[in-house]
Amino acid sequence: MDMNEAARSDWWESLPAGIRDEIDGYVLKGSLLMAVKIITDIGRVPHGIGVGTAQLIANDRCRHYGDRVAREPESPLDLESLVCRAAGCAGRIVAIEAIWDGDTVHDWFVRLLAITADPAEEVPMATVYWSAAQRYVSEQGDPDPRHPVAVAAERAGRALAEHLSVPFHFAAPDTPDDEAPRWRP
Q: Which has the higher per-residue pLDDT, 65 or 162?
C-alpha cells in the first residue's frame, strides 16, 4: 500500500502515544531499522503497511526531529588522523585495504583496514560514508567521475599506505562490489 505524506501523517496521529514514543525513541537514537520493524509489525495486518511505507514513515519522523536524531560520528580521513590510528595497531602493518560494504541505512560505503601480521588482523582505520566522502572530495578540488565514496577511500587509503611504505589494495575502485577479491600477501 502506497501512502502519500498526508496519509502517513494521519496514520501516525492515529497511533497510541506509547507506540509513537517507542518509535520516536528508536528514531532519535538513530536505530531506524528498529523503528521500521515496529511500524511494519503494527501496520502490516490492519493497514497494509509494508517495509517501503514503513521506511517513509521513519524518514518522516527523522525529518520531524532534524538535527536531534543521533548520527554516527564520521571517521576522519586526513592523513594525520589515519597515521595516529595506525600507530595504535598491535601488529606490524603489511597493507592498507579498502573494501566495499553496505546496509539499508548508509547504502554503499567503504571500510579502510590496516592488515597486520604478528598478530594477523584487520584493524579498522576509517569507514567512508557518502556525506564525509563528498566533503573530502570537494576539499581536494580534483573532480573524479567515480562514486565519491570510492574516490575518498582510495585517496585517503593510498596516502596512508604511502606514508607507511606498504601496499594499498582496492579491488573494486570503480563499482561497488562487496565480493571483490581481498588482499593477499
A: 162
At 110, give phi and psi (nearest 5°): -125, 135
Q: SS3 for 161?
A: helix
For 74: left if phi > 0, alpha if psi spans -120 to 50, otherwise beta; the answer is beta
Is the pTM value of this prediction over 0.85? no
What are the grid coordinates assigned to 155, written together?
Answer: 585517496
Strand arrangement of the beta sheet that strand 121-128 belongs to: 121-128, 107-117, 92-103, 168-169
Please report which residue ranges of 29-126 form alpha helices under DSSP H: 32-47, 51-65, 79-87
Q: What is the separation of C-alpha 178 from the centre of its chain, rounded to a whole number of angstroms?
A: 14
For residue range 9-60, list pLDDT tens digits in order: 999 999 999 999 999 999 998 888 899 999 999 998 888 899 999 999 998 9
